[in-house]
Design goal:
This protein is of the alpha/beta class. It is built from 10 helices and 5 strands; from the N terminus they run H-H-E-H-E-H-E-H-H-H-H-H-E-E-H. Helix 5 packs across helix 6. The longest helix is centred in the last third of the chain and has 21 residues. Bound molecules: cobalt (II) ion (CO).
């Protein structure tokens, strides 16, 4: 594996901080006052999908949770803690599940080979495959089938969010939690809104 010079990142960082200060003198001071992000985003850990970069966001704009294949698992204390803090402390009312075409985690689950520990995590996606077996088998081209699975996985994770006690409590308090199903395509740079693509109402608000 080639060795990269991490020092160049630190050098870049110094330049970036200086640039931010020169264009907006109170930029970092304003961050110290606290955060009020507009949305929680649940994305894949894949290095090619960086949501802040793709969506043009600045520090403080987005509360983020990432894992392999943007899974919402009811036993994942990490995700549940992030979601609870987002909804109950930060007052976030918009949650985006942000999948992406070409997802290695989705492909690995689809291929069903043995990959060790990660198989336990990918079992969440194998459930999605089982739930949509007929729909997926109707698609002849394998890439198209896996892309469809990427979309179905996003929609399934939205359903999983709705099953959390955090979501149910918020709805019980009369709060609107808007759920958004987005898929990023790194072959075009575009983010697709599945709600529009499939005309889904009101399951995904
Ligand atoms: Co991925």
């Amino acid at each position: 594996m080639c060795q990269i010079d991490l020092n160049k990142y630190l050098e870049y960082n110094k330049e970036w901080a200086a640039k931010m200060l020169s264009s907006q003198g109170d930029y970092f001071d304003s961050l110290k006052e606290g955060q009020s992000p507009k949305a929680l985003l649940v994305g894949c850990s894949d290095s090619r999908v960086s949501p802040s970069k793709v969506l043009g966001l600045e520090l403080g704009d987005l509360f983020v949770h990432r894992n392999i294949a943007n899974v919402v698992s009811h036993t994942d204390l990490n995700f549940l803690s992030v979601m609870q803090y987002a909804v109950e402390n930060l007052g976030i009312h918009d949650i985006i599940v942000y999948g992406h075409y070409g997802c290695g985690g989705i492909r690995a689950a689809y291929e069903n080979k043995s990959n060790g520990l990660i198989d336990n995590w990918l079992a969440n996606i194998k459930d999605v495959i089982r739930h949509h077996k007929n729909e997926l088998e109707e698609i002849e081209n394998e890439n198209d089938r896996i892309n469809k699975l990427v979309e179905l996985n996003v929609l399934e994770q939205i359903e999983n969010i709705k099953q959390t006690s955090i979501y149910k409590k918020a709805i019980g308090r009369g709060e609107a939690i808007r759920l958004h199903a987005w898929v990023f395509d790194f072959s075009t740079g575009l983010v697709h809104d599945l709600k529009k693509k499939y005309n889904i109402v009101p399951a995904v608000v």
